[in-house]
Automatic annotation (TrEMBL):
KW Transmembrane helix (keyword) present: yes
Keywords noted in UniProt: Membrane, Transmembrane, Transmembrane helix, Transport
Domain ABC transmembrane type-1 intervals: 26-222
Main subcellular location of this protein, as a coarse class: membrane
Transmembrane segments: 33-54, 61-85, 97-118, 154-181, 201-225
Protein name: ABC transporter permease
UniProt source species: Roseibium salinum
Localisation per UniProt entry: Cell membrane
Length: 235
């Protein structure tokens, strides 16, 4: 029991002292995660909005596929990206394997279906609610989609935060394509797995505390955004 408390005390000491190795790992984690979420939103928001707004053959199938891809196994995504970027893969000339860029690619593949599927549901509900008003005003579908994206901005920020929460906690895919190389591709989740296996519980616990704080901050932001959306709706 004393070793547990010693490890916990050492972990908080690393956090308070802003240990350089700890800060480097956290910084790379945030860089990879935020970049992946940005690209996932650039792809997923318009894709989900288009599926939620336009009617076309196979629309229901696309919606089903997006929902199914929300549950993509991370290790499978990591394996596919690894095969694409490996020396025998079609993208080998890019030399991205075992780099932060490869980790971003894997996270984008994992997060984009989540953003797209949740966006589709939000926009589809709004489209159903405002369809008569749009029709009476003769609003085109593209303008309709743009208007709904703006009207749903608070909900879509929540969608983006959900994607961030998924990305920041990812370990399976990023460890396959990143290799968990010290000072190169070592992020919080992969470091926790490695340091725990080595018995270095201080660093693992310190990073675990940071991840918990990030999860708390993300959930607080989601609740604040929902409250803002409710206030805006009744303003």
């Amino acid at each position: 029991m004393s070793s547990f408390w010693d490890a916990l005390g050492g972990a908080f000491g690393l956090v308070v002292a802003l240990d350089p190795d700890l800060m480097e790992i956290i910084g790379l984690s945030m860089q990879v995660t935020l970049t992946a979420v940005l690209f996932a939103c650039l792809i997923g928001l318009p894709l989900g909005a288009a599926v939620g707004t336009f009617h076309f053959p196979g629309r229901s199938l696309v919606a089903v596929i997006l929902n199914a891809l929300m549950g993509l196994p991370p290790v499978v995504v990591g394996l596919l990206v690894y095969l694409l970027l490996s020396a025998s893969g079609p993208l080998a000339p890019l030399r991205l394997l075992y780099t932060p860029a490869a980790m971003v690619i894997a996270q984008v593949i994992l997060v984009t279906p989540i953003v797209a599927a949740l966006t589709r549901q939000v926009i589809e509900d709004l489209n159903r609610e405002y369809s008569e008003q749009f029709a009476s005003m003769g609003v085109g579908r593209l303008d309709r989609m743009t208007a709904m994206l703006w009207d749903a901005r608070y909900s879509l920020l929540t969608v983006a935060l959900a994607g961030f929460g998924r990305a920041v906690a990812e370990v399976g895919a990023v460890i396959i394509v990143g290799g968990n190389i010290n000072h190169v591709t070592r992020v919080m989740t992969t470091t926790i797995a490695l340091e725990t296996s080595k018995g270095n519980l201080q660093l693992a616990l310190a990073l675990g505390v940071i991840l918990l704080l990030i999860a708390f901050a993300v959930n607080s932001c989601v609740m604040a955004l929902r409250a803002s959306a409710v206030r805006a709706a009744y303003a």
